[in-house]
Design goal:
Length: 135
Amino acid sequence: MPAGYLREATLDAAREYRERWGCPRGPADGATLPADLAAEARHVATVTGTPAASTCPLACVTYADPWVVEVTRAVALASDLHIPIDEQLGRDLTRVDLQALSALKRAQGEAWESDQKIREEQREQEAKRARSGAR
């Protein structure tokens, strides 16, 4: 494989997906997503518990509202530096801030539970392979 081939292929694929998703604002001229991408958006919505995106589901992360960035950054810094979130924000927490923090905490818990389930399934598969190989 020539040097740079993998990089160029990856960039070409990224350009294609960006064009198909219409990142960051959706397909051109308000067109609907192609069927495969619409199915992907519905799947992401199911997993995240959010409305189905009309563009790349990661656009809300990549192009998040400044308030979302402010709160999530404060949570990360508070966790890493052990400084209260309201001090990180430089203001008192609002009701909406508290709802967002609750949603973040719930999502973290759900992610941890999902990871635990995956690890348990992997352990079971490894144990099954070990038993079948021992015979």
